[in-house]
Design brief:
Layout (H helix, E strand, L loop, with lengths): L1 E5 L5 E5 L11 E5 L8 E8 L5 E9 L4 E8 L4 E7 L11 E11 L2 E11 L5 E8 L3 E10 L5 E10 L6 E4 L4 E5 L2 E10 L4 E9 L1 H22 L2
Antiparallel strand pairs: 1-2, 3-4, 4-7, 5-6, 5-8, 8-9, 10-11, 11-16, 12-15, 13-16, 14-15
């Protein structure tokens, strides 16, 4: 806008005034710090990108990791930060990469939708547990859980000797079998998605061999007893 100023003495000056008109959506920006899969917190922000005072803004933040509602006021070019505690169960199945942070901003009866990015850091974390149970029917259970956020390739190897292998079953079946001397090596190669668990069960049933041994001992005892009988 051009404007003209003149004082009582007749001195005058011509100047211009600049006024910027912008959409409400373009008046804000949102963002967040990176998320480490091993942490349980994140810092997000909303920033005023224009030279205007916004009072009593109602803001709803949404992402795959959390939802947050806040009432804030922003000075010209001001910024508000919020620290959020995360629940790892909410994102244990998400893979690494960039995710959308959306904010619905309500100002003076008008609503604008603003978007930013959240970077989910890449972490390869696989935890392995083994559990043994049973006596005559001996069972080994191997569990491998992907607690990271990338697809993990894992290899599992179980060793059996030439005798125990005759009475052992596997679930699921191994991908490869290799023999070296008296040992047999069973190998599984798998890919585990984030948040998933691979379970391998190895069951050795000693009931039959124990029964055979007892039967042979009984036969020997009976034969000896019979040979001594008149």
């Amino acid at each position: 806008f051009n404007y003209f100023i003149q004082d009582n003495s007749g001195n005058h000056s011509s100047e211009s005034l600049v006024m910027m008109v912008t959409d409400l959506q373009n008046s804000f920006s949102v963002g967040a710090s990176e998320i480490n899969p091993e942490s349980n917190s994140i810092t997000i922000y909303i920033k005023n990108d224009v030279n205007y005072v916004f009072n009593n803004l109602s803001v709803t933040f949404k992402s795959p990791f959390f939802t947050l509602n806040k009432n804030v006021s922003l000075s010209p070019y001001g910024q508000k930060d919020f620290n959020i505690t995360l629940n790892k169960k909410d994102f244990k199945s998400l893979v690494a990469g960039f995710y959308t942070l959306s904010a619905s901003v309500n100002a003076q009866g008008k609503t604008a939708n603003v978007e930013g990015n959240i970077k989910f850091q890449e972490k390869n974390i696989v935890n392995t547990t083994e559990q043994n149970s049973g006596f005559l029917i001996f069972t080994k259970t191997i569990k491998k859980t992907n607690n990271g956020n990338v697809v993990s390739s894992v290899q599992t190897v179980v060793t059996k000797n030439v005798i125990s292998r005759l009475f052992t079953t596997f679930s699921p079946s191994p991908d490869s079998i290799k023999r070296e001397g008296f040992n047999i090596y069973y190998t599984w190669n798998n890919e585990i998605q984030p948040g998933n668990t691979l379970t391998i069960s190895v069951k050795t049933d000693w009931i039959l061999p124990v029964f055979i041994i007892i039967f042979l001992i009984a036969v020997v005892i009976l034969v000896k007893q019979f040979s001594r009988t008149d």
